[in-house]
Amino acid sequence: MKSYRQSMLVDFYELTMANGYFLENMQNEIVYFDLYFRNTPDKGGYALFVGLESIIDFIDNFKFTDDDISYLRDQNLFDERFLEYLKTFSFSGDIYSFVEGSVMFPNEPILTVKAKLIEAQIIETFLLQTINHQSLIATKSSRIKYAAGKKTVLEMGARRAHGESSSILGARAAYIAGIDGTSNILADQLYKVPSGGTMAHSWVQLFDNEYEAFKTYAKHYPNNATFLVDTYDTLGSGVPNAIKVIKECLIPLKVKNYSIRIDSGDLTYLAKQARIMFDDAMLPECKIIVSNSLDEHLIKTLLSQGAPIDLFGVGERLITAKSDPVFGSVYKLVALEKNDIIIPKIKISDNIEKITTPHFKKVYRIYSRNNKAEADLITVYDEKIDESQSLKIFDQISTWKTKTFDDYYVKEMQQTIYKDGKRVYELPSIKKIREFASSELDSLWEEVRRFDYPHKYYVDLSKKLWDIKQSLIKR
After folding, report:
1. Dmax of the chain from CA atoms?
2. Do 329 and 128 form a contact (C-beta atoms < 8 A)?
3. Quick check: 180 and 154 in contact, CB under 8 A?
4. Is the distance from CB of 123 to CB of 111 less than 8 angstroms?
5. Under CATH, which architecture does the 197-293 domain have?
6. What integer pLDDT is reported at residue 6 of this predicted model?
């Protein structure tokens, strides 16, 4: 693949608009854009925010090269003064964002950009692409890990991913969401996602017989021996040969870390029968790994049927989020700034869900004293919540539906990432992001996390913001 700079990863209309803004002398107008999503994948109760590190890397290194400018000049569409402007272009605005690993819900501003008009517009494509992909994979992965419970789950989808960055960043997103490791070595090298793997069916096929294949592997990797037992006959030869090699080659070395992998057939039945065979052979330490087009629903079914599985290898249905492969976040103008006064802007639509929520805003998460997330409240940027007072929220459509909180506390969800173009946020390690994501998921009620008809988590507007929105709609 040819090398490229991410600065040119923009939709063409962003540059035509930017050129027009420049020619109209609008480039220094201050605007506010919100990035949010409308619907949760798989009709789930929540989503997981991942991708901030990629966005920070993009903003930190944003620059148009001479080659970029030359390419744009050859389009015979852009004014030369605009091209000169792009030569020294850099982001000088503010970015406020949920931190990576946060749980998020539809229609709340996950990321807000306050910047000069062209700056805010020209970064749109990268922001959306990044969050749409990485948050999608993280959300799917969190569901898969939730289904598996305390069982180990490995991401094994690199060969089915939609390209190299999809596989690498997908593995990172999966790890943040709770998946225990990956088959992708580059994801380990770049992002410290633990990687591992053993053999494929081709290893077994290349030897004269299955026993020799297993024995040779055990000789070279005695402390990492996983035998793929379904190449010929899982129960008839695969498991018996694995037992034989374990007893001949590993037990004398006092090795207790060994396993088998089943990649086809009735996984529940085969796992149960294999477990009986290993227990009868006095090899209770042998772990059973399964793979083959797994997802959260199949994993849940296997475990509910009592399958004695220790580890799940999940590939294509995780790395492509196969059941619902489009996240669908959007990036909308919500305000202008004139003479230091913020002027809210709204987009109206016959489709109610496409009506935007105007203004520069904050998102507060409301917690009960047992640290469970109860609801999110979107307010105007200058509103503060007094935790010593009762807090009443109401549904923004069915306004008669209300709820009052007395014993609660709130957390402001967005943090300042850039201020006046300078990054003021320190990137945490992937381990810290993963730990934070785990705590975020733990803050949800089980009813919100269930797969079928999850409890609706409310994201409401403050009375002040609701009044502003209604007045703009009427106007």
Report:
1. 82
2. yes
3. yes
4. no
5. Alpha-Beta Barrel (3.20)
6. 84
Q: Tell me the C-alpha to C-alpha distance, in Å, between residue 308 and each of 142, 312, 408.
A: 22, 11, 42
Task: Tell which residue, 80, 48, 234, has the closest CA to residue 242.
Answer: 234
pTM above 0.85, yes or no: yes
DSSP assignment letter at 346:
-
Cα radius of gyration (the chain): 26
Residue 155's DSSP bridge partners are 182, 314
| DSSP secondary structure of 414-439 | EEEEEETTEE--PPPPHHHHHHHHHH
pLDDT tens digits for range 263-288: 999 999 999 999 999 999 999 999 99
- Please list the residues that pair with 187 across neighbouring strands: none
Decide if 228 contacts 280 (C-beta within 8 A): no
What is the spatial distance between Cα 230 and Cα 209, in angstroms, rounded to a whole number? Answer: 13
Strand partners, 472: none
Residue 196 carries which DSSP code? -
**Exposure on the CB side of residue 236, measured as CA atoms within 13 A:** 3
Query: Helices 124-148 and 164-176: crossing angle, nearest 10°?
Result: 50
The per-residue pLDDT of the chain, averaged, comes to: 96
Q: Which of 201, 187, 97, 198 is nearest to 141 (CA)?
A: 187
Q: Please classify residue 452 by burial: count the beta carbons closer than 10 Å to its beta carbon, then call 0-12 exposed, 13-18 middle and 19+ buried.
A: exposed
Question: Is 3.40.50.1240 the CATH classification of the domain at 6-137+325-474?
Answer: no
Q: What is the mean pLDDT of residues 187-200?
A: 95
Q: Is the pLDDT assigned to residue 166 strictly greater than 70?
A: yes
With beta carbons less than 8 A apart as the criterion, state whether 143 and 174 touch: no
What is the structure's pLDDT at 353? 85
Measured between alpha carbons, how far is 368 from 303 in angstroms, rounded to an integer? 32
CB 82 within 8 A of CB 19: yes
**103-104/47-48 β-pairing:** antiparallel
Tokens of 305: 């049927």
pLDDT value, residue 3: 63
Query: Within 13 Å and on the Cβ side, how many CA atoms surround 23?
Result: 11
| pLDDT tens-digit map of 220-262 | 999 999 999 999 999 999 999 999 999 999 999 999 999 999 9
CB-CB contact of 288 with 271 (8 Å) = yes
Distances in Å between the Cα of 199 and the Cα atoms of 193, 235, 243, 268, 317 are: 20, 19, 17, 22, 21
417 backbone dihedrals φ, ψ, rounded to 5°: -100, -45
The enclosing H or E element of 410 equals strand 408-412
Tokens representing 98 are 């949920």
CA distances for 92 relative to 21, 89, 317, angstroms: 17, 9, 40
Domain map of the chain by residue range?
6-137+325-474, 197-293
Q: Identify the three-state secondary structure at position 192.
A: coil
